[in-house]
Amino acid sequence: MQFDDNARLDASEVEDVRGSRIPGGGAAIGGGIAGLVALVVALVFGIGPDGPGSPSGGGGPAPAMSSPGRAEQSCRTGQDANTKDDCRIVAVVNSVQDYWTQEFRRRHRSYTAAPTVFFSRQVDTACGAATSAVGPFYCPGDRKVYLDLDFFRELRTKFGATGGPFAQAYVVAHEYGHHVQDLEGTLEKSRDGLTGADSASVRTELQADCYAGVWAHHATTAADESTGRPLITSLTDADIRDGLDAAAAVGDDRIQERYQGRVTPDTWTHGSAEQRQQWFERGRRTGDMDRCDTFR
Predict the structure, then answer these.
(1) How far apart are CA 91 and CA 49, in angstroms?
(2) Where are the alpha helices (DSSP H) in 75-116?
(3) Is the per-residue pLDDT at 154 higher than 50?
(4) Mapping DSSP to helix (H, G, I), strand (E, B) and coil, where does residue 16 land?
(5) For residue 140, what is the enclosing H or E element?
(6) CB proximity list for 100: less than 8 A, separation 6 or greater
(7) 268-282, pLDDT tens digit by residue?
(8) What pLDDT, on a 0 to 100 scale, did the predictor assign at position 70?
């Protein structure tokens, strides 16, 4: 995945609070294998505060990164996105929201932008207090995406994904899929508290995967409104394979087999590896959000 070196990034779409906490309150956030707390139905990659997703520092060399709390100043151009992990996420956020803004406008609707919050270790949100253990998540209470960038290392070291820039992009695009669901009024459907392969929770997560695929379909053609040019200049087959690999790595069956030694479909909240890949690919092939109705 390559960004236009000369493109200007809109860092105002990201709130970088790494090394600090955001004031807030509410119920604690859970997630993953054990199930989702009702107020935060959109947790997608977390395994719960005491599960294997807990922060441990991971392994391997640290990625190039701006100073904590400085992404707004350091991430200015596409060249920054091509060389720094956090700036790459800023660019992906820009691209995803550029696409959804244009798609909503095409449908004669208004898209409301959602910030992504970079945090480290723990954060308070309108949905409650969260630690890095829950993984990336969307909070409908304040309409923000929350992300500890160390998760991308854990995606490789703990979940077995191959990694790569587009694996990161898939995660971000999935969370914005939840934001689209929130704007569309479909996010409420997963708040029944039920689990299982056919549950509303699983259908909600698979639809967010499909929406991530829809963005991927348009990623190299959705133009930045300030320049009229796409922010992402190339997306290769290898990039897509990295995204599909990441989708499979966080399938309920893969996580359960890795950490429980058995697969229990009646406790699923996010869908199997195969389902997650299939719905992402459905969105990517069609580029049509109307083909992402997992509830029918």
Answers:
(1) 29
(2) 78-83, 85-106
(3) yes
(4) strand
(5) none
(6) 111, 176, 179, 180, 215
(7) 999 999 999 999 999
(8) 77
CA-only gyration radius of the chain, Å: 17
Nearest to 1 by CA among 98, 88, 64: 88
Q: What per-residue confidence (pLDDT) applies to 60?
A: 38
What is the value of pTM for the model shown? 0.84
**Encoded amino acid at 288, one letter:** D
Token look-up 């060249």 returns 79
Assigned token pair, 244: 């599909």
The terminus-to-terminus CA distance of the chain in angstroms comes to: 33
Specify whether the CB–CB gap between 39 and 26 falls below 8 A.
yes
CB within 8 A of 278, min separation 6: which ones? none
C-alpha distances out from residue 138 to 130, 148, 181, 261, Å? 11, 12, 11, 29
pLDDT in tens, 196-255: 999 999 999 999 999 999 999 999 998 777 778 899 999 999 999 999 999 999 999 998
Query: Is 26 within 8 Å of 126 (Cβ atoms)?
Result: yes
Half-sphere exposure of 6 (CA within 13 A, CB side): 4
d(CA 110, CA 183): 9
CA gap 293, 80 in Å, rounded:
36
pLDDT tens digits, one per residue of 226-238: 778 899 999 999 9
Q: Determine the Cα angle at 146 with ends 278 and 269, to 5°.
A: 40
